[in-house]
Give the backbone structure.
Amino acid sequence: MPKTNNFDLIRLAAAMQVAITHVIAHFIPASRDSGVLGFIELFPGVPIFFFISGFLISKSYEKNPDLREYGFNRFLRIYPGLAVCFCMSLITVWLTGYFATVTVALSELLLWVLAQLTAFQFYNPVWLRQYGVGVLNGSMWTITVELQFYMLVPIVYVLLRGARATKRRTNGVLLALAFVFWVINRLCLAETAQYAHALWFKLLDVSFLPWFYMFLVGVLFQKNFEVLSRWLAGKFVYALMGYCALAIIGTRLLGWNVGNALNVVLFLALAVATFSAAFSCNWLSDKTLRRNDLSYGVYIYHMPVANTLLAVGLGGRAIGFPCAIFATLLCAYASWRLIEKPALHLKRHPLYQHDRQGDARAVVVNS
């Protein structure tokens, strides 16, 4: 796999897709029916993240399967930025005066803090229901899912070794696993209306079970990189046009889902387009972003920023949208420069290393 690619740029676009759709919903909800937003929603950020994660994490694990170093590298990717974001979010809640309006037992506060800083980021206490949109950072459920992906990768590779490591058998195992978890995804979607408010169903939705097939498709693409790159590298325009045509026909004529519950045909087409984008003009990300990876910061900060603006009275006002996006990008840049990038320099045997001297040959994928 070439060391230059556009994954940083793609992930930033995916994070911005999530941020824009969330922020619009709370500041200019009338725009949700616009054609521009409808087009943006054809490219759901979360499935793109899960696919890219499968591609890159599997490659990283193959490069360095030592479990201690693998776990340490994953920790550095997630927790330094996450911890600072949580602290900043807590400070903004306090500054808006919200804590003066509620009574919070110390045990409840400590339970929430523990959940946010471990692996239960989806947990949102009742006493926060009147702040902003009612959930301080609703996007964080995907961190819980991503952490489960990280833990499952070594298990998947045990199964692949059991397949005697031939290309055909490896692909067969991955396809079988992806199919099983896709079926689980469809079953969950079919039962949403009936069980949406049941606790067990909510916990199921933040487990790896409905989402793991997306990650496994990323692994499958990584394992077949040479073949796929011959067909898709440098062909992004064609892949994008094909995806757009399929998405428009599928959603308008066939009733296919978009968003996180993306129809499987559309997801596979989106995976093809994402892969093609990563290896078409693969210098583009490095040239435009200059190895600054803002995607994680955009993703984890956009809802705390939006909630702060809502708490100070900008809800339903159009000016809140540009303010939220600008503040999110500012927080993301600060997080990258001050927290995430220094932490990632501590990685052991990373897939790609940041070069502190700015060597143009280095590129960041940070997964």
